[in-house]
Amino acid sequence: MKILTVFGTRPEAIKMAPLVQMIKKDEVLECRVAVTAQHREMLDQVLRLFDIVPDSDLNIMQAGQTLFDITGRALAGLQKVLEVERPDLVLVHGDTTTTFVAALAAYYMQVPVGHVEAGLRTGDKFSPFPEEMNRRLAGALADLHFAPTAGARANLLREGVDPERVFVTGNTVIDALLATVRPGYRFKDQLLDNMDFDKYRFILMTTHRRENLGDPMREIYLALRDVLERHPDVRVLFPVHKNPAVRQVVQEVLGTSSGVHLVEPMDYEPFMNLMARCYLVLTDSGGIQEEAPSLGKPVLVLRNTTERPEAVEAGTVRLVGTSRAAVRAETDRLLNDAAHYRAMAEAVNPYGDGRAAHRIVQAVKYAFKLSGERPQEFAG
Predict the structure, then answer these.
(1) Which PANTHER family does its entry note (predicted)?
(2) What is the pLDDT of residues 230-270, one digit of tens each?
(3) pLDDT tens for each residue of 89-119
(4) Which residues are catalytic?
(5) Helix (H) or strand (E) segment spanning residue 190
């Protein structure tokens, strides 16, 4: 059975890598890999780390590309890939434009689609934009739905998806994380390798969401500056996104702050090992809401909505929005209240146990009658 996995960004590659590796090990499955390279440099970092060589590389990224550009180039390129490969199943991941377009291309070719990390919803089609609609549209086109949690499955069932086509697997991001973080890791960057993680409590910051550009980011960074003034034992490590709109506000607000270390975007492996050494995380990222709790790191989510409510319910993350007062207050609380910090740090991660890729492979074989036993679901 030939399976074509399609992805185009770094987050997709991270989460699909354990699945690619698991499919390649299986005796009855053939794995083919196609990348759109919607993001080029960041994607390549992950391909090298997990030793994945794509069978097809569309290399669509261009400077100043729009969603229209990505959609058009990816759709045309994937038509040719599908015509050559003729797969039995196309696997897509999550909520990127590549995800939606790959599902659409497979549908046009009447090839079944499996959606990894299916069923996440905020209920607001513009938040996050365009990810919320990418995942909903991919879900509408999918034949198999690999939901990371019971909550994600419930979302799909409310939308009328056949329960027999939904498998609760856990999230493959935990598979990747557990294979990457290790004690004694040495950073190649001397700045990071020389950081005194025993003397200072480090906050790891990431921001990149379109809806946070402009004033919301300014509010977040002003709150961070307030926190540093209140806590002399705190430092900030901030891998700054390459988007010029992000960098401009970062420089204006934090460029001269002595307690802030602004660094270039990091490869996945050093970033995960850096997160493991930091005290807490402030982010508007989706994936970090899943990853950081596995490392015992509280997460403050710099957004007004999240498609990952299980983390909020479990107590591993808090949704704080973007106002200066709220971000400052919640960060202060984690730095001042040891019991509150422990409650978040020690809460159980609801997203995975490191066996999600195995469950997905078993679910595929079951769905295509290569195995007679439906895989046991992830319990959370």
Answers:
(1) UDP-N-ACETYLGLUCOSAMINE 2-EPIMERASE
(2) 999 999 999 999 899 999 999 999 999 989 999 999 989 99
(3) 999 999 999 999 999 999 999 999 999 999 9
(4) 95, 117, 131, 208, 210, 241
(5) helix 190-193
Can you tell me the distance from the alpha carbon of 102 to that of 93, in angstroms, rounded to the nearest whole number? 10
Domains of the chain: 2-171+352-368 (3.40.50.2000), 187-346 (3.40.50.2000)
Angstrom distance (rounded) from CA 149 to CA 119: 9
Tell me the pairing of strands 89-93 and 166-168.
Answer: unpaired
C-alpha 265/C-alpha 188 separation (Å) is 14
Report DSSP letters for 226-265, one per residue: HHHHH-TTEEEEEE--S-HHHHHHHHHHHTT-TTEEEE--
**Are residues 351 and 176 in contact, defined by beta-carbon separation less than 8 angstroms?**
no
* Cβ(212)–Cβ(303) below 8 Å: yes
C-alpha dihedral sign at 299, 302, 308, 312: positive
For 51, the token pair is 């030793």
